[in-house]
Amino acid sequence: MSAETGRDLLIGVDVGTYSSKGVLVDLSGAIRRQHTVPHGIDMPHHGHVEQDADLVWWADVQAILRELLSEPGTAGRVAGVACSAIGPTLLPLDGAGTPLRPGILYGIDTRAQAQIEALEAEIGADAIFAHSHMALTSQAIGPKMRWLREHEPEVWTRTAMLTTASSYLTFRLTGEHVIDHHTGAHTMPLYDPRTRSWTDRYAAAVLGDRRLDVLPRLAWSDEVAGHVTAQAAAETGLREGTPVAVGTVDALAEGLSVGALQPGDLMVMYGSSTFFILVQDAPTPDPRVWSVGGAFPGQVNLAAGMGTTGSLTRWFVDEFAQEHETAAAYDTLFAGAAALAPGADGLLLLPYFSGERTPINDPRARGVIAGLTLSHTREHLFRAALEGVGYGVRHNLEAFRDLGADIRRVVAVGGGTRGHTWLQIVSDICGLAQEVPQVTVGASYGDAFLAGLAAGVLERDDLNTWVRPGERVEPNGALKPEYDRLYSLYRELYTQTRDTVHALGGVG
């Protein structure tokens, strides 16, 4: 499709767990400019993981947009903008749209376990699954809404809108309160996947006497949410009236960024956590994983997510490689891990350092390192961490296959794809090939494509020219017997230590 005269650029911005990134691209998908802003997370209590919506999310977006638009005349050439962010998150706003507390993050925040159990007792776990096509887990927003109502009644009383991170960014840009269907599906049990709409069937159990109008309007990710307001233009440098797409969570935007569009395409996102999105012809609901809508009308996704993967390697670098700058530390550790044989000389690690999401859905799980001796080094531990994540990936993919999901192609994206070591370990453990496109900028690149669709300057088929083939990582078949043995031990290690780590966490 042809762009409006002079509107030949697109912007995508993604707010992640530990950093935010933005890209300025032309209509062919060529990156003209990019900018990254690092940030952190807050953990005020055990199991609570938060970020400030204005000081982190919106401040990052402002800084990124001003950098991308710093060259004179750029703003007038931007045809559209889209944002994605970590999710599903929960953020209460007052009537003026001002955040009332920090945002409560996605499944790594496990504060609402008691509310999950209460909802299951009141409604029935089977009834919730039948209604939502998903079981309640730490990924669900509904129990966190109930937690907010029960634990912070003064905030709840002042709440006029309940939103999520990507929706808040769109709200700041446009003044429109809107959420995409993929994220909306996680607002369970308030979302009906059959009608693609909010439902008050179980609303009282979550919202008390509040009405569903506190929730955002539902829409698809490639629709126009609204247009940049005069205030947002002044705060960001964007042109007033620029179209803004509805946007989505970071993982779905990551999938678009690497061309995961056809049924059977599986995106594996190696980020702070590892996320999986499989495009399907028809839903295959299962309590272990998540059945949600896709980016476009009628699209179905099977999704899953681990809790601690890239954040585990970051923790390792911060705690055990302080003598190096961060980039050099990663290079040193990956090189050392690559030089070791599979199995890290008898070490096995469970990467459940913030509980675990799919497929075990155990917020009380904890990290375990088994097999330590005085001969093990830092590099042995690091390789064990990389392999532990690989076993977790295999566990999720086996859950997909158990329920009959068809995986035809695996495309990898995210910071963990840099270099070869980790990808090779995962391919060897799982016995599958992974494709890594030439451009692996990530979610912000997918956001830019959504911006082009919303603005009417791109069509979906244009993604075939945006995403260009790159590396293909093939599994080493000779390692299969050893990794099969170690994977079996990995599965046993969780079941054998589960009660112990639950007790250590003080939950009995």
Automatic annotation (TrEMBL):
InterPro entries per UniProt: ATPase_NBD (IPR043129), Carb_kinase_FGGY (IPR000577), Carb_kinase_FGGY_CS (IPR018483), FGGY_C (IPR018485), FGGY_Carb_Kinase (IPR050406), FGGY_N (IPR018484)
Keyword line: Kinase, Transferase
Question: Which SUPFAM superfamilies would you find in this protein's record?
Answer: Actin-like ATPase domain (SSF53067)
Instruction: Return one Gene Ontology term, BP aspect.
Output: carbohydrate metabolic process
Q: State the Gene Ontology terms under molecular function.
A: kinase activity; phosphotransferase activity, alcohol group as acceptor
Sequence ranges assigned to domain Carbohydrate kinase FGGY N-terminal in this UniProt record: 10-252
Q: What CDD domains does the record tag this protein with?
A: ASKHA_NBD_FGGY_RrXK-like (cd07804)
Q: Quick check: keyword Glycoprotein in the entry?
A: no
Looking at the keywords, is Transferase present? yes
Protein family: Belongs to the FGGY kinase family.
Which segments constitute the Carbohydrate kinase FGGY C-terminal domain? 267-455
Q: What is this protein called?
A: Sugar kinase
